[in-house]
Design brief:
By secondary structure, the chain is mainly beta. It contains five helices and 24 strands.
């Protein structure tokens, strides 16, 4: 999910209607690579068809998204928090990130040129669920390093300590349980979101932060006006998570149209930057 707001944190949560890709092959060798952060987005170097490029790690994206203009297809549609977008399905012969190699990988062309304009960097695409589900990914925000591991049997998994945060999958989106006041909510941790987001109805009891209303941009070029509130969201399994953080209020109903069940918001960079996260689907 890539989102941009007026100080313009980006959010690009999106859904593409597709079935699972059974034809790709994956070779996983444990490796660590450095990443950069721009506007709250995690940027890593990867190699697409032999050519190095810069990609956004995006747990809100359905798979490998290529920053290319699509021809469009009546059989495919993509929808994000700010509306729909054109998409084209393609096959990638080889894609490498760190020491992980993918062959015969399905990918989607989507025009992300507006994201390049925002970041002032050439962006080759997004790395989402269909790639990340084949590995364990550890993002250490303070150290700005990403470790990629086999799903089972690594030294890190065997020696794991600390807090666990269980999540369920809503289509391709990881979702964690939380509370806002007395209400149970479902939130998507999203490395492709530069801001935290709450569905509009949840933010009504909370005051606007300094009366702030700004524009927010999603994976397409569309923008929406959005208020910012401070809300004490508690995340199950995370100690001291109830300290108020800024949340952008958005109507997520367009996204809900394509999901098996609705999510109430997104945990983006302001939440994730606080620590080290292991994502194991």
């Amino acid at each position: 999910m890539v989102l941009e707001a007026s100080a313009q944190p980006p959010v690009a949560l999106m859904h593409v209607a597709f079935s699972g890709d059974q034809s790709k092959t994956v070779e996983v060798v444990q490796s660590s690579i450095d990443f950069d952060i721009r506007a709250g987005l995690v940027l890593v170097e990867a190699v697409l068809e032999g050519s190095p490029g810069l990609f956004v790690i995006d747990t809100g994206a359905p798979g490998l998204i290529l920053n290319q203009k699509p021809e469009g297809s009546e059989d495919l549609n993509a929808r994000g928090v700010t509306g729909s977008m054109e998409v084209e399905e393609v096959r990638v012969e080889e894609f490498r990130v760190g020491s992980v190699r993918f062959s015969n990988l399905r990918a989607y062309k989507i025009d992300l040129s507006h994201l390049e304009e925002r970041l002032q960097r050439k962006i080759d695409g997004l790395i989402g669920y269909d790639v990340l589900k084949e590995i364990e990914m550890v993002l250490d925000y303070p150290a700005r390093t990403m470790t990629l591991l086999p799903l089972f049997g690594s030294d890190l998994i065997a020696g794991r300590r600390g807090e666990y945060l269980d999540f369920s999958l809503v289509n391709h989106i990881p979702a964690v349980s939380g509370q806002l006041g007395k209400r149970d909510i479902l939130l998507g941790p999203d490395t492709g979101a530069g801001a935290n987001v709450l569905n509009t109805s949840l933010g009504r009891p909370y005051r606007l932060k300094n009366g702030k209303v700004s524009k927010l941009r999603g994976a397409n070029r569309n923008t929406r006006r959005s208020a910012v509130v401070q809300a004490p969201v508690v995340i199950e399994g995370i100690k001291d998570s109830g300290n108020p953080l800024d949340y952008w209020l958005m109507d997520l109903s367009q996204l809900h149209t394509d999901l098996d069940r609705p999510i109430d918001g997104v945990l983006g960079f302001p939440f994730l930057k606080q620590g080290k996260w292991s994502i194991h689907y």
